[in-house]
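Whether sequence alone determines local backbone shape is best considered at the level of individual chains. When preparing material for the folding task, we compiled for one chain both its residues and its backbone structure tokens. The sequence in question and its structure tokens are set out directly beneath this paragraph.
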Amino acid sequence: MFLNGGPMIFTGKAHPDLATRICEYLECNLGRAEFFKFNNDNTFVKILDNVRQRDVFIVQPTTFPVNDNIMEMLIFIDAARRASAGRITAVIPYYSYARTDKKDQPRVPITGRLIADLIHTAGADRVVLVDLHAAQVQGFFSTVVDELTALPLLADYFLKKNLGEIVVVAPDIGSSRRSRDFAARVNAPLAIIEKRRLGNNDRVETLNVIGNVEGKYAILFDDEINTGSTMISAAKILAEHGSKGVYACATHGILPGDAAQKLTAVPNLNEIVITDTVPLEERKRHPKITVVPIAPLVGEAIRRIHEGQSVGALFT
């Protein structure tokens, strides 16, 4: 039983705009905190509100600068624990290092597990995540995990566009399951691009399209768009196979460096649709890039967690 009413929402420096929009959805005030770096590069966090026996939610996607934001989140969790919070939930809309989920080479780490262990050690009682790159990352946590998905929000966006004849395309075989679920949601067939990734860098060799895309609008669906190389090579081969146009769709728009410029420069790539799990810098904004708000989904999950209701019912 928590004292003094509703959930308390706090944010680090990673994405305060998202936390503000979550509070607007929940009709509550954003909690106050102070955080900065000392001149020796050490991070300092101080919670300015009384959180004793309160239900605390700390919103912090682990985006650029990744390691700084992870450390800030861990320190924030520790501060809440030492301030006697009743329960602490780490809300991580984008979970970095999820790609490092297994030993696929000799003498390499499983960093996704390491970060999960650190979050538990810091004092988080619960974790909320959105569209993990690898589902098994849930099992890395010793705490309770709620994984949300933006798939219904993104599907609704495309259903409202009324594009006509469409085909959902998995950019690689590994993403075929989530693409199949998206295809079912928008009542479209599924195609798959067979590709080969070269080494540990982001070079991609596209090989073949499995399925019929000729004369249709193709929706490339994945969990995240990073450098955009996969989407760019996919858009090119889809044009070669006769698609009318291509839409790139993903939950997380990472877009480092000049990735946004490269994507928007592809002639047959009509639109890039992402959510705001990570902030989109002003210099990366473009008429071709559409951002679907994630705050209502995360806010509703927070409300349900606080009130002891089902989170899974959001997606049934």
